[in-house]
Amino acid sequence: MADIVKLLQKQSDLYVMKGATEEDIKKAEEVLGLRFSYDYRNYLIEFGVVSFTNHEFTGVCESKRLCVINVTIEERKNVEVPRDWYVLEQTNIDGIVIWQDGNGTVYQTAPNVKAKRLCGSMEEYIAKE
Description:
Blueprint: H1 3-9, E1 15-16, H2 22-32, H3 38-47, E2 50-52, E3 55-56, H4 68-78, E4 85-90, E5 97-101, E6 106-110, E7 113-119, H5 122-128
Antiparallel strand pairs: 1-2, 2-3, 4-5, 5-6, 6-7
Helix pairs in contact: 1-5, 2-4
């Protein structure tokens, strides 16, 4: 089992949806024109979408509000980011958005602020909290 899955399973107040299929993940990648990172793919396969404590991550699901495709397309209209970035989480605080690239690096953007690197993986991002 991937480390990201183990780490998420340890979170309190964990709410999960149905895991995504490989076919659904590939379709999402095609629509966005990118490849998800290894840890994000493992997360999607196991959970589809999760929320816990102060986090609600995007995923591959029916919910427009949580679907990585919809959210990434919408946020790309608000801020210019590299094409291989996808939204990991909308914090709903001061327009802050957490992004991840295909290599796994996690970034933060906010209105009128230069994007900043937060950490090297989704796992590290969760563990920092």
